[in-house]
UniProtKB/TrEMBL annotation:
This is Beta,beta-carotene 15,15'-dioxygenase isoform X6. The lineage of its organism: Eukaryota, Metazoa, Chordata, Craniata, Vertebrata. Fe cation binds at residues 225, 431. Residues 442-473 are annotated as: Disordered. The keyword Metal-binding applies.
Length: 473
């Protein structure tokens, strides 16, 4: 896997992208200056940024991208599982690979780059895995092994805990951070994907808030991803993807992934969307056994067992989905649609689906040999309905004859609007977000007004705030 891949808009490449070179790029080469371009040791692509074995071509586009869709889909996930002769045990351990699809004026530009975390730098410098991850233990006492000298030398660079932020992208104001499950995150440049400084997460103890005296409980389950939560009719309604056991984690050990999926990668429990309802107040006069939920929109129950103990039983909404997303303007509010990856007994998604929590119906997109990533919803400017917008998903193909592509679906009908196929080695990722291009949105507002598009009625560019920030594996 090369360090970075890109097919960029000239606007995004004001400098040669070769490491340490800041010269202006050649006019005919969007990413390299003439010196780097001419260097004999660089292969087919300028600056060696593109794999020498690949024949490069810009994304091949089919369909039509809505003119209002301007911005960058920024995503994160594991990209490198081998360092030197050492190998991670678990798929969730891989060194973070950021990748982005920039949509500009109906065209798509792609870029990927490894997160230059302290973990990445220490591993690369040692040419082996020297920082432990979730499923991989580095040498527990490096001073006692043959690498002692190297470790003594590297000790100032090895982080105390991994900062390999491969899980998600978080937006804080105008800053963007790659995040993981430890207390480190790394600020990144969302345009160039360069890694900036490290950030500590500070946890604030809100001592002024007293805990609710009632104890709520339910049956044992495993939850990786929450969908949404809101208040309705005196209770908190929340939707989560649940498992009966932790078999999902087990299946992502690389030893399991390397075996035949059909034979060895079957989940022992299917991910299931369930709706819980928790009463905000427990009626002291209610009899034991009373269902405290009075909301008509759900069959979830909360049975009073004692004045200070309530048993919650969820409503089963849909089986076989993961990596849920919503129209994020409905985050924390009543909502109707869940967008998710469709999975069944294998942990790898094979479909994208839209679930209607009101009608309990679903729409699906799927294609032979395609593995879709988490679908992200992007609202249309001036959207009236919750599902006015598009779905973006990076699709990896298991068919070597079929290129990976960025898929754009109409979120309402779930029909394909466009796809941009890319001659790159794209990895299955985890989470991400869409960064609307404010200038582009404003430009297209003017365009749509000029064209008097039927779906217009624009009241200004719509900017979702931090879409995609829900998930933690
Ligand atoms: Fe996750």
């Amino acid at each position: 896997m090369p360090d970075e891949l890109q097919w960029m808009h000239p606007e995004f490449a004001p400098e040669c992208l070769n490491s340490g070179c800041r010269a202006p790029p050649m006019p005919q080469c969007d990413s390299a200056c003439c010196h780097c371009r001419a260097r004999g040791d660089q292969s087919a692509w300028p600056c060696g940024l593109f794999p020498s074995s690949a024949s490069f071509s810009p994304p091949s586009l089919s369909g039509r991208i809505p003119p209002w869709l301007q911005g960058t889909l920024l995503r994160n996930g594991p990209g490198m599982h081998t360092v030197g002769d050492s190998r991670y045990n678990h798929w969730f351990d891989g060194l973070a690979l950021l990748h982005s699809f920039t949509i500009r004026d109906g065209e798509v530009y792609y870029r990927s780059k490894y997160l230059k975390s302290d973990t990445y730098n220490a591993n690369v410098e040692a040419n082996r895995i020297v920082v432990s991850e979730f499923g991989t233990m580095a040498y527990p006492d490096p001073c006692k092994n043959i690498f002692s000298k190297a470790f003594s030398y590297l000790s100032h660079t090895i982080p105390d805990f991994t900062d390999n932020c491969l899980i998600n992208i978080m937006r804080c104001g105008e800053d963007f951070y790659a995040t993981t499950e430890t207390n480190y995150m790394r600020r990144i440049n969302p345009q160039t994907l360069e890694t900036l400084e490290k950030t500590h997460i500070h946890i604030i103890d809100q001592r002024t808030r007293k805990p609710v005296p009632t104890r709520f409980y339910t049956d044992a389950m495993v939850v990786f991803h929450h969908v949404n939560a809101y208040e309705e009719g005196g209770c908190i309604v929340f939707d989560v993807i649940t498992y009966k056991d932790s078999s999902l984690y087990d299946l992502f050990y690389l030893a399991n992934l390397n075996q035949d999926f059909e034979e060895n990668s079957r989940l022992t429990s299917v991910p299931t969307l369930r709706r819980f309802a928790v009463p905000l107040h427990v009626d002291g006069n209610a009899e034991v056994g009373t269902n405290l939920i009075k909301v008509a929109s759900t069959t979830a129950t909360a049975l009073k067992e004692r004045d200070d103990q309530v048993y919650c039983q969820p409503e089963l909404l849909l089986e076989g989905l993961e990596l849920p997303q919503i129209n994020y303007t409905h985050n924390g509010k009543p909502y109707r649609y869940v967008f998710a990856a469709g999975v069944q007994w294998s942990p790898i998604p094979t479909q994208i689906l839209k679930y209607d929590t009101l009608t309990k119906s679903s729409l699906r997109w799927g294609e032979e040999s395609c593995w879709p990533a988490e679908p992200l919803f992007v609202p249309a400017p001036g959207a009236k309905d919750e599902d006015d917008g598009v779905i973006l998903s990076a699709i990896v193909s298991t068919d070597p004859q079929k290129l990976p592509f960025l898929l754009i679906l109409d979120a309402k009908s779930f029909t394909e609007l466009a796809r941009a196929s890319l001659a790159v080695e794209m990895h299955l990722d985890l989470h991400g977000l869409f960064i609307p291009d404010a200038d582009g949105a404003a430009r297209n507002q003017a365009t749509s007004e000029t064209e008097q598009a039927p779906a217009s009625g624009c009241q200004g560019p719509h900017r979702p705030d931090g879409a995609g920030g829900l998930g933690l594996p």
